[in-house]
Specification:
Helix Hairpins; alpha/beta; two-stranded antiparallel ribbon; Rossmann fold; seven-stranded mixed sheet
Length: about 725
């Protein structure tokens, strides 16, 4: 079938309105994630074919309005104005309709083709909210399509409404909000001046620009500086604002906001009935327990423990399958390639390095799946509400909990998520402690070390590390607030969405998107660095060894032939000789020399030069610590994969449980990966703050790891 044309559809809506669920319903797996040009805000696009059209869907950042208070709001409105999508679908939560329609009034001011997707209409009905959609559509002047995103209801009707607008134009014209005779008079004056420059009015509606001037929109002021009559416009705007302020004696932005809500309230009063059934619903009853000051905290702590426990236990079998696959691949190349540098590069450098990271993909997937469940059910907002009581006591903003919780998945989106915090000081303090929320990239290290030294209690030990991260974050917030960032945190207001049953499809898409980022890193950054680390740990090669290992191997074979030792004893001897030879080579290599040079610095922590090399590799990506350890111990060629690495660590006489725990503490606290720090720099736009972040986290990691090790020794735990 020949496609007629491409239709660009933008999805807008409040957070928690079900926008992403509808986007996933429409596009399925045919979507990709990138960034908007020049900024680090995530850009999600997808496509589908319907009735001969190719529809490109763009999921805009979730916003409550189109003001210029946050970068998400600016990006959403810039895309709508500058990219001019054919249709905008405004996702409105029917159970919280008046709040959601505020964004609708602002979208209608942009003179765009608009459709309201009245989502969660079943939930509104259950709560006793009866909406006459046809009448409300006439009052708003916007077509309305009832939908239930988590049940895929209304998707066909939504697509048909898009095609109807493209083929036949709009059947309704959005009703313009009237701001009163005085404000409308001033808008008209500004409108006449702005209309004289077609280079600007071709893209921006003059009335909208006039309204934004009265609202003191900084972005619009920047834009109108290019206008040929900018001086006259700004002068007239100042006069208009002065006249209106003297008349109303109130903030103009608040007056304009009140008029919009007044329009919404009038329309809803006409088209919505609330029955006697409008009472405390199931969400309210559940909230009585889940956001209770005592039971809420206990349930939250239990929920977090369960997430990490299941992440460890459920992933065990899939990890074994991946280990077997990687071991088979390594054996294949061992049999195909002759012994030498190329063999070592592919088996030890590439398969051993990348394979050592990919093997932890099940852990990452289960963690991201758990986070997706918490987000999609509505519990994530409750968790933020619960933590707000604590956050304010320690000096953080209530909204800080959201990026900090995202930090358990990855520091990169956590830094980006800190944009929801409007106050700059609150935001910087939050960003400086996000690193203590153990990202998913640290998880493979925890799994490896805990599995090696505490095989029966790995989940409990790992949980203690996550708890330690929270404690350190609290203490550091107190210190930062008392020193570099003095002042009170801003008040916290957050909407608690109703509980929802998430769709399996939506959960899987969220899980796969984040897991794919992990895999992509394994195939690019980690692959490159694994090869670099292999080179540093291979060259230069030692020509003369402390022992004649070839002779020792021959002796072992001879002893087996003469039946002096068993086959397993011979294999154990040969493995020990090969490991000793590899250890001598490693110590002689470039990496070994770097490790030896930094060893005096990390010796008070109980670390040797090998752990030093692993920690240095973690500056590039935390997952690389595991692959570096695999290369150090030469387990890329073994059939047991990461099991052999765990066994090698546990059997190493130089390491103890105390050293292992100190190592975990250092990994928890020291600087995030280079990718995260690049985002940190872009978000803060401050080299000073970035250098401070790198310096203080690494110094803190060294100090607390030293306290753990030296303190443990004094207590006789070594």
């Amino acid at each position: 079938m020949v496609l007629k044309k491409e239709i660009v559809v933008a999805l807008a809506g409040n957070p928690n309105s079900g926008k992403t669920t509808i986007f996933n319903n429409l596009t399925g797996a045919n979507q990709h994630v990138g960034n908007y040009p020049g900024v680090t805000v995530e850009k999600k696009e997808g496509h589908l074919n319907y009735r001969g059209y190719r529809i490109k869907a763009v999921d805009l950042p979730g916003t409550y309005s189109l003001s210029a208070y946050s970068i998400d709001e600016i990006i959403a409105r810039k895309f709508i104005i500058e990219q001019k999508p054919d249709v905008i679908i405004d996702i409105v939560d029917a159970s919280n309709i008046e709040r959601n329609l505020y964004l609708t009034t602002q979208l209608s001011e942009l003179n765009v083709h608009l459709i309201i997707a009245l989502n969660m209409s079943d939930m509104a009905k259950n709560r006793g909210i009866i909406i006459n959609t046809e009448y409300l559509a006439q009052l708003m002047g916007i077509p309305i399509v009832p939908t239930v995103g988590n049940k895929k209801k209304g998707m066909t009707e939504l697509l048909n409404a898009i095609i109807e607008i493209v083929e036949n134009g709009v059947s309704l014209t959005p009703v313009q909000v009237s701001y009163g005779k005085e404000i409308e008079r001033e808008l008209s004056k500004l409108n006449d001046i702005i209309s004289t420059d077609s280079t600007i009015t071709n893209s921006y509606k003059p009335r909208w620009l006039s309204l934004k001037l009265l609202e003191d929109d900084a972005e619009v002021y920047k834009l109108l500086k290019q206008h040929k009559s900018s001086e006259q416009i700004f002068k007239e705007a100042d006069k208009s604002k002065a006249r209106l302020k003297s008349l109303y004696r109130e903030n103009l932005s608040e007056i304009i906001t009140d008029r919009r809500y007044g329009f919404i309230s009038g329309a809803c009063s006409e088209a919505i009935n609330r029955t006697a059934e409008h009472r405390h619903d199931v969400s309210d009853k559940i909230d009585y327990v889940l956001i209770h000051p005592i039971s809420g905290l206990l349930i939250f702590a239990g929920m977090m423990w369960l997430v990490f426990h299941l992440t460890f236990t459920l992933a065990e079998k899939p990890m074994e399958w991946i280990e077997l696959a990687m071991a088979s691949l390594a054996n294949l190349f061992l049999n195909i390639l002759p012994e030498g540098i190329l063999n070592s590069l592919i088996v030890d450098g590439i398969i051993g390095g990348v394979g050592g990271v990919i093997v932890f993909l099940p852990n990452i997937m289960f963690l991201f799946l758990a986070i997706a469940v918490l987000e999609d059910t509505g519990y994530m907002s409750r968790a933020a509400f619960i933590m707000d009581r604590i956050m304010h006591r320690i000096g953080l903003h209530g909204k800080s909990f959201i990026p900090m919780l995202i930090g358990y998945g990855c520091s990169v989106p956590a830094y980006l998520g800190s944009r929801i915090i409007e106050d700059k000081t609150d935001r910087l303090v939050t960003m400086h402690v996000i690193t203590f929320m153990s990202c998913g990239a640290r998880l493979p290290i925890y799994v490896l070390v805990c599995g090696a030294f505490w095989p029966d209690k790995a989940g409990n030990v790992m949980f203690s590390i996550y708890v330690l991260g929270i404690v350190v974050a609290i203490v550091m917030v107190k210190l930062l607030r008392a020193t570099r960032f003095k002042g009170l945190s801003a008040p916290f207001v957050m909407e608690l969405p109703p509980y929802r049953i998430p769709t399996i499809r939506s959960l899987l898409i969220h899980m796969w998107e984040r897991s794919w980022m992990y895999l992509r890193k394994a195939g690019t950054v980690i692959l490159s660095f694994s090869i670099i680390m292999w080179f540093l740990m291979t060259f230069p090669q030692k020509k003369t060894y402390d022992k004649d290992y070839d002779a020792l191997v021959k002796l072992a074979n001879h002893s087996f032939s003469s039946e002096k030792i068993t086959l397993s004893e011979r294999d154990s001897l040969i493995t020990a000789y090969e490991n000793s030879r590899s250890a001598e080579n490693l110590e002689y290599s470039i990496a070994g020399r770097i490790g030896k040079n930094i060893e005096p610095i990390i010796k008070p922590l109980g670390f040797d030069w090998r752990l030093g090399i692993a920690l240095i590799s973690g500056f590039v990506a935390k997952e690389v610590v595991v692959s570096t350890m695999g290369t150090i111990y030469g387990v890329g060629e073994t059939d047991e994969g990461s099991e052999a690495l765990r066994a090698s660590l546990a059997a190493d006489p130089k390491y103890s449980k105390l050293i292992a725990y100190a190592f975990l503490v250092f990994v928890l606290l020291y600087v995030p990966c280079m990718a995260a720090m690049a985002v940190f720099l872009r978000e803060t736009r401050s080299i000073k703050e970035t250098l401070f972040q790198i310096g203080y986290t690494t110094a803190l990691a060294w100090f607390l790891a030293m306290v753990v090790y030296q303190g443990g020794k004094l207590l006789g735990l070594s």
